[in-house]
Amino acid sequence: MRLYATDTHNPADAGADERRVDGTPLVILHGLFGSADNWRSHVKQWQATRRVIAVDLRNHGRSPHGDGMSYEAMADDVLELLESLNLERVDLLGHSMGGKVAMTLARLQPARVAHLIVADIAPVAYEHGHDEIFAAMRHVEAQTPSSRGEANTLMAEMIDSTPTRQFLATNLVRDDDGVMRWRVGLDEIEQGYDEIIAPPGGDTAYPGPSLLIRGGDSPYVQTVHREAIEAVLPGVTLETLNGAGHWLHAEQPEAFREHVERFLQREA
Q1: What does the longest C-alpha to C-alpha distance in the chain come to?
Q2: Could you give phi then psi for residue 260, rounded to 5 degrees?
Q3: pLDDT at 110
Q4: Per-residue pLDDT tens digits for 13-30
């Protein structure tokens, strides 16, 4: 599957900077219901010193919709993108679901990954936890709102959190009839949800340098997960952003970037 990606090496991309600095490109993979657009502020900062490719994973953003949400399939999508860009080796950053895609790719093709950064996810299976989000998105879908405000009101019937509603609203686009529609492949994501909450793919450990940054207020990475993390990432450095939740890169962007940049300065 040919994924959509914003590439700062391409001057045609919005916000592209023609200054280029030699070094390993950084590839960014978003989380569930996210997109490359969520990483614009970070890309703007990082593109001053390196090439940055922010990816829309399958059934997300501007990428095609298709059946299957397994981590092996999504990692293959990213590898196909790297091949199309002639990128032999990259630094790889993934948040949440994107972190599991990143771990899968690193386990299957370790020579392609110089540094691996995982944001607030462990390589374990999780319980179902998005029922209210699916219900809210289906409610919006059924009511065909004509504005983001109407969509927000509909989501508020099922989701109390304003930040969560605002995050989901980034996936709304207006169709030719003026109706706000979800650009994500909601059917495919819901059908593949059991694959999304499963552990990442691959059978071996990633031997390269890895960093796992967790939010101190997030439930996704717990002490009980340490053994599973070290089995997949034996060289891992685990760091915590105190006061941050699951969307730590949005809640504490400067601190998040500092952790990433310090780690990327290490020799691979």
Answers
A1: 53
A2: -65, -50
A3: 98
A4: 445 444 445 689 999 999
Q: DSSP 3-state assignment of 18?
A: coil
Q: Check if 246 is active-site.
A: yes
CATH number of 4-126+197-264: 3.40.50.1820
Helix (H, G, I), strand (E, B) or coil at 30: coil
* Catalytic residue, candidates 30, 95, 115, 246: 246
DSSP 190-255: HHTHHHHTSPPS-SS---S-EEEEEETT-SSS-GGGHHHHHHH-TTEEEEEETT--TTHHHHSHHH
Q: Is 84 a catalytic residue?
A: no
Domain-wise residue ranges, the chain: 4-126+197-264, 131-187
* Catalytic one of 67, 131, 187, 194: 187
Look at the chain and count its residues. 268
SS3 173: strand
Question: Distance of alpha carbon 78 from its chain centroid, rounded?
Answer: 12
Q: Average pLDDT in the 186-194 region?
A: 98
How far separated are the first and last CA of the chain, in Å rounded?
30
Catalytic residue among 30, 35, 63, 96: 96
Beta carbons within 8 Å of 65's beta carbon, 6+ residues apart: 58, 59, 185, 188
177 is catalytic: no
